Amino acid sequence: MTGGLVEPTRRVSRGWIARFALAWIGLYAGLFGPLQILLPQQVEALAPEAKEAALALVLAAGAACSLVANPLFGALSDRTRSRWGRRRPWIAIGFAGGATAIALLSAAPTIALVVLGWCGVQTLLNAPFAALSAAVPDQVPAAQRGTAAGYLGLAFVMGVGCGAGLAVLGGATTAGYLLCAGFALVSCLPYLLGGRSDQVPAAEPWRWGVFLRGFWIDPVRHPDFGWGWLTRFLINLGNAVVLLYLFFFLSDVVGVADPAAGVLVLTAVYSVAVLASVVVVGVLSDRVGRRRVFVSAGGVLMAAAAVLIAVWATWAGALVAAVVLGVGFGTYSSVDFALLTQLLPSARDRGKDLGVLNVASSLPQVLAPAIAAPIVTGLGGYTALYLVAAGIEVTGALLVYRIRSVR
Questions:
Q1: Closest CA to 389 of 305, 322, 318
Q2: Which residue of 27, 177, 244, 381 has the fewest CB atoms within a 10 Å radius of its CB?
């Protein structure tokens, strides 16, 4: 028992995993449909002469909001006491608010309002992001978390694919946004309405000082947590740099006539590759009792995909890179989350601590534009950009071995 909470020992059912995965699919569709296709289209229509800088501004502002919102909502869910548990109220509020924000974003007539709308989407959808993340250590025993993380990786792929598909299916940008919003809202209902609630510990007196100080987790006292954070940060930073300008790379370098359709095709290829690895590797990790080797291998494969794009800037090269990136991301994501849930300092603060770890995923979205924009516009172009991304990912893949408490 840690912090008044018992570590889960009862295996979750297939039904729970299905409902959990569906909620994540909707969440990712709501985020990545705009991120991959709709925001670039909208920004290009509003600011065609400065589309790279404008898109970088929009994405960086949204990621900055995510940076704050994820640990904040995680900490608030830790302290929530209700008949529906700690997490479900924030899942419901976040999906409802996020879908509304996506719908409003669809009508934004200026770059300034696009920035504001995307900040709203990122802020509100990080409430269910934080709460759903905490549901894994709340309810899934450690020996089953590789499998759960594998299905979480599968949900990511399906969510990204659904988001891209809905964005293209809508035809017009506005319709694409509305389809993503509606799908996100519907997808969370089975999880909210079914299954068991998480444990709710006794309420504690609210103290602002304790609440704010809790966001700092001392890497000296908790070194494995610190190394886990840094590993996730570097691998996600490299991946964010690779994906940031994919739409423009296909249009301006590869010469794809319809870059939106190109993104959709690459997403489909990538998704098939992820599907071939994500659940299998998660289950294998549980069976062999090892996490680090899979995280490292996934990071190296993702770096290899970046190198392929750098040296083979053709449509065929992009397709091969999508396969390698998919296998690498499937291998990495199927185990990374399971590994990190085993490094949490306190069971009582799982939501907040995972929120701090999720900063390692959102902070790269803030930093990637600052790194990528000057490289693309004057410091070597796309070739240099993708080689830099590969170096970052390899560094993260190697540093995972500094973690000692998990094999």
A1: 305
A2: 381
How confident is the model over 126-178, as pLDDT tens digits? Answer: 999 999 999 998 889 888 988 888 888 789 878 988 998 899 888 889 999 99
- pLDDT at residue number 1: 39
Other CB atoms within 10 A of residue 107 CB = 11
Closest CA to 40 of 164, 162, 160: 164
Three-class HEC string of the chain: CECCECCCCCCCCHHHHHHHHHHHHHHHHHHHHHHHHHHHHHHHHHCHHHHHHHHHHHHHHHHHHHHHHHHHHHHHHHCCCCCCCCCHHHHHHHHHHHHHHHHHHCCCCCHHHHHHHHHHHHHHHHHHHHHHHHHHHHHCCHHHHHHHHHHHHHHHHHHHHHHHHHHHHCCCHHHHHHHHHHHHHHHCHHHHHCCCCCCCCCCCCCCHHHHHHCCCCCCCCCHHHHHHHHHHHHHHHHHHHHHHCHHHHHHHHHCCCCHHHHHHHHHHHHHHHHHCCHHHHHHHHHHHCCCHHHHHHHHHHHHHHHHHHHHCCCHHHHHHHHHHHHHHHHHHHHHHHHHHHCCCCCCCCHHHHHHHHHHHHHHHHHHHHHHHHHHHHHCCHHHHHHHHHHHHHHHHHHHHHHCCCCC
**pTM for the predicted model, two decimal places:** 0.79
CA dihedral sign, ordered 117, 212, 133, 366: positive
Give the residue carrying structure tokens 């992820």. Answer: 274
Tokens read off for 322? 């999508």
Domains of the chain: 14-194+215-402 (1.20.1250.20)
